[in-house]
Amino acid sequence: MAERFTKSMARNMYMGGSLFFILIFVGLTMDTVRQMPDRDNRENLTEAVAHGKKLWEDNNCVGCHSLLGEGAYFAPELGNVFQRRGGDVAFKAFFKGWMNAQPLGIPGRRAMPQFNLSDEDLDALADFLEYASKINTNGWPPNIEG
């Protein structure tokens, strides 16, 4: 290696490396886009789920909770709350009771505000959380409590 490292050699390494990593990025992006239809939950997307998502956003639930790892970590992860709290059998009853009982008023514990949502709104929010729980997330969150 007695030869000098020239500007043209440096430019060729830069361009070759850039092209290599751009191709890797494009390939991984195409793979993700190809897998998305198999992993989404579109067949369960209803008007109630859309209304629940709007309630989620309007009430800033993500300001305290995380959903599928996105959001604040002040309160529990809600991406798998449907499975944790009874699934198809008991979730809606649990969810309505929980939301109507807020704030619990337990000293030393974080308090969730009372949003005064109607039964229809609570059903829609429960449908949204059920929808979110059925998205294929490759095992995220890694534990049952999020």
Provide structural commentary.
A hairpin with a 2-residue loop joins strand 1 and strand 2 (about 70). This protein has helices spanning about 5-40, 45-60, 80-85, 85-100, 120-135; strands at about 65, 70. The chain has two domains: about 1-40; about 40-145, Orthogonal Bundle (Cytochrome Bc1 Complex, Chain D, domain 2), CATH 1.10.760.10. Helix content is about 55%, strand content about 5%. The protein has a two-stranded antiparallel sheet with strand order 1-2. It has about 150 residues and is mostly helical. GO terms for molecular function: electron transfer activity; heme binding; metal ion binding; oxidoreductase activity. InterPro entries: Cyt_c-like_dom, Cyt_c-like_dom_sf.
The main β sheet shows up as: 2 strands, antiparallel
How far from one another are the termini?
A: 55 Å
What is the CATH C-level name of the largest domain?
Mainly Alpha
Structural class estimated from helices and strands: mainly alpha
Quaternary structure type: single chain
Overall tally of domains: 2
What would the principal axes of the Cα set say about the shape? elongated
Number of helices: 5
Task: Return residue spans where pLDDT drops below 50 for at least 5 consecutive residues.
Answer: none
Mean pLDDT: 89
Write the H/E string, N to C.
Answer: HHEEHHH
CATH H-level superfamily of the largest domain: Cytochrome c-like domain
Radius of gyration: 23 Å
Helix content: 40-55%
EC number: 1.7.99.7
Keywords: Heme, Iron, Metal-binding, Oxidoreductase
Pfam family, one: Cytochrom_C
GO molecular function: electron transfer activity; heme binding; metal ion binding; oxidoreductase activity
